[in-house]
Design a protein that fits this description.
- Helix content is 75%, strand content 0%.
- By secondary structure, the chain is mainly α.
- The termini are far apart.
């Protein structure tokens, strides 16, 4: 009986005759969680599609070199995170967008995105997260949305647990302050 455990997937990938099957199972298992991880970083569906495609291309090219000294999903999240950061940096450089303008553009794009079905509260939360420095944004998203432990996040981002806890605390405080400052006053 076949399972889709990471060990089974890696065993399939290790054999030339079952490589394609193993890769298909890996993609089916991780495509959705990686998509949402990426989407929370790049925000726009089309951009997330591009980044996840780049992520799986990189996985395809390097999966045989995976040493298994970390968990498979940790390795995949690290690739997805790095691809997202690279995408964001290229996009900012290409568009020459400042932080303020980037937030306005992001909100306009989100409201026009057919694949975004969030309410006003979600838009405000996304706006607050978008203002965070990259590391705080990553830590907040992985902890809040992906429900990853600090140890898992530390492994993905290759930083200490202590610095992650501090980053998460600062991010949560900044988000809270942003939301408080931007409450619609009913008068």
């Amino acid at each position: 009986m076949e399972t889709n455990s990471d060990i089974d997937i890696l065993q399939l990938i290790a054999e030339e005759k079952t490589f394609d099957k193993g890769l298909r199972i890996l993609i089916l298992k991780y495509q959705e969680p990686l998509y949402w991880h990426i989407r929370r970083m790049v925000h726009i569906h089309q951009d997330a599609d591009d980044v996840i495609q780049n992520t799986f291309i990189k996985v395809y090219k390097h999966i045989r070199k995976f040493k298994q000294d970390s968990k498979l999903y940790t390795w995949l999240y690290r690739i997805a995170t790095n691809e997202s950061i690279t995408f964001i940096q290229k996009k900012r450089k290409h568009l020459k967008i400042s932080g303020e303008l980037n937030e306005i553009t992001l909100m306009q794009q989100l409201k026009a995105d057919d694949y975004f079905d969030g309410n006003e509260a979600q838009v405000k939360l996304i706006a607050a997260i978008a203002k965070l420095p990259m590391r705080q944004k990553q830590v907040f998203n992985m902890r809040y949305y992906d429900d990853l432990s600090y140890n898992e996040i530390a492994e993905i981002l290759e930083v200490s647990v202590g610095s992650l806890k501090a980053s998460y605390h600062h991010a949560a405080k900044k988000i809270e302050n942003h939301l408080i400052e931007n409450v619609d006053h009913v008068g």
